[in-house]
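Below is how a single chain appears once it has passed through the pipeline. First comes the sequence as given, then the structure the pipeline wrote out for it. We keep one example in the README because the format questions we get most often are answered faster by looking than by reading.
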Amino acid sequence: MDEFILELFTPLPLLALFAIIAASLLTLSKGADILIDEAVAISNRLRIPKAIIGATIVSLGTTLPEVSVSVMAALNGNPDLALGNAVGSIIANTGLIMGIAALISPLVIDYKAIKFQSWIQILSAALIVIFSLPFLSKGDSGYITQPMGWFLVLALGGYLYWSFKNSRNSMDSLVEEQLHEHEKESVIKQFLLLIIGMATVILSSKVLIPAVELTAIRIGIPQSIIAATLVAFGTSLPELTTSIKSVLRGHGDLAVGNIIGADILNVLFVIGVSASVTSGGLRVPENFYTLHYPAMMIILVAFRAFTLNKNHKITRLEGAFLLGMYLLYLAMNYLL
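Resulting structure:
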């Protein structure tokens, strides 16, 4: 689909590309509205905290672009892109998106609801770094092997099972005041609208990515910058749109849960499936050890520390730090 869209857009003039970008952003925004409304409605009906919904259902939907890009890259013999997309998306999710969201409005953390997920976020990222160590693959270069991919996929099943099993017993009081708001709506209708919202967000991002890429090339942005950052940023657009919309509509805990869940799924789902479908596994380029992995762990540890402060709130200053770290990461990609 991506190649077809790229071929379709290539002959178009620059003005037409700008129009496509504007239309894609509009539908992306509308899809995010539907997605958030129905995610909140389902969390209320099922008495599940919004942070849990964000870390599971919403994250599964918004992570689908990363899955599709990475798995296709792995199957097409480009495993470097598969790994780079997932790791780059984690950095963009936590640095760029959480940074912008906190700058818009300080994020109140539903810590009890996301305590387990936040630990899994850190541990899964650390696990992928450990899996990448060269001595584990008995070679000069590190590999995330196919058996490691199978292990990550199994861990994904355990994570989703635990999240849903335990969510019904936590923080029910937070949704009591909203339980009657959507009680007249059919659960089937709510889930259908949720799927429509996800599909709109994902398809809009699929159209937006090649349009932005072609526009960037035509106005002279270096190809090295596009290759290092645009794919990861493009596949993180659903998380960006959903999170900002969540904050603007007073559901900051949904935004935090969505990003934590998306980070976990980028390891367990995106990297896990990508490694599972390739017999040779995913090769880890050398610059991952010097730039991408250190940047990922620094940003994740900082984010984790911010959620542990006594007020359980990510302030604007902390958001500025996360955003600054992401911008520094972009600059290092260019300089190195």
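Residues 169-180 have pLDDT under 50 and may be disordered.

See the next section for the split statistics.
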